[in-house]
Amino acid sequence: MATEKLADIGLIGLAVMGENLALNIADHGFRVAVYNRTTQVMKDFIAANPDTPGGLVGCATLPELLAAIKKPRKIIILVKAGPAVDAVTRQLMDDGLEKDDLVIDCGNSLWTDTIRREKDYAGHCRFFGSGVSGGEIGARFGPSLMPGGDAQAWQHLEPIWKAIAAKVDPETGKAIETAKPGQPVVGGIPCTAYIGENGAGHYVKMIHNGIEYIDMQLISEAYFLMRNLLGAAPDQLAQTFARWNEGDLDSYLIEITADILKQRDPQKPDSFLVDHILDTAQQKGTGKWTSVNALDMGIPANAIAEAVFARNLSALKDERVEASKQLVGPEYSYSGNREELIDSVRDALYCSKICAYAQGFQLMRAAESEYKWKFDFASIAAIWRGGCIIRAHFLQKITDAYRREPRLLNLLLDPYFKEQIQKTQSRWRSVVAIAAQAGIAVPAFMSALAYYDGYRSAQLPANLLQAQRDYFGAHTYERTDQPRGRLFHLDWPAPDRPELAIANSGKSD
Ligand code: NBP
Question: Domain range spanning residue 497?
Answer without folding.
Answer: 462-504
